[in-house]
Amino acid sequence: MSHSDTIIAELRKRGYRITPQREMIIGAIAHSPKHITAEEIAVHLQEHTHAINIATIYRTLDWLWQEGFACRNDLSEGKTVYATLLHGPHVHLVCRKCNQVIDADIGVLSTLGNKLREKYGFDPNLDHFSIFGVCSECQDQ
Fold this sequence. Notes:
The protein has helices at 3-13, 20-31, 38-46, 54-66, 110-120, 136-139, and strands spanning 70-74, 80-84, 90-95, 101-105, 128-133. The longest helix is centred in the middle third of the chain and has 13 residues, at 54-66. By secondary structure, the protein is an alpha+beta fold. It has two domains: 1-85, Winged helix-like DNA-binding domain superfamily/Winged helix DNA-binding domain (Arc Repressor Mutant, subunit A, Orthogonal Bundle), CATH 1.10.10.10; 88-141, Dna Ligase, domain 1 (2-Layer Sandwich). It is globular, with a radius of gyration of 17 Å. It has six helices and five strands; from the N terminus they run H-H-H-H-E-E-E-E-H-E-H. Helix 1 packs across helix 2, helix 2 (20-31) packs across helix 4 (54-66) and helix 3 (38-46) packs across helix 4 (54-66).
């Protein structure tokens, strides 16, 4: 079963109707090798159909996020990227220069989470955490 088929099956199990537009959007985000914007999804889908508009894409992405199947990250300059969550918790390393998003293992934040619990009695949700900086490619330029 493909990544998008898994998401669709779970949504149907929850009682949701999967329209052809939703199926195309889920397929686009699930098969993207990188974090993707709503606008990039629109461009990709317009190669196949013109029966889908940007508002539908935004609503579907928000719905996937609310249902726990997608994460979203607000990057600099008002740009928001999305990715599916079936690969589990991870840290987003966001380059401030090129906006590249790198997925890092959540384990790198375990010490931070423990320190916040010990020092402040605060239990952080670090499942999808963004850290902004400069990627190695931009540092080399």
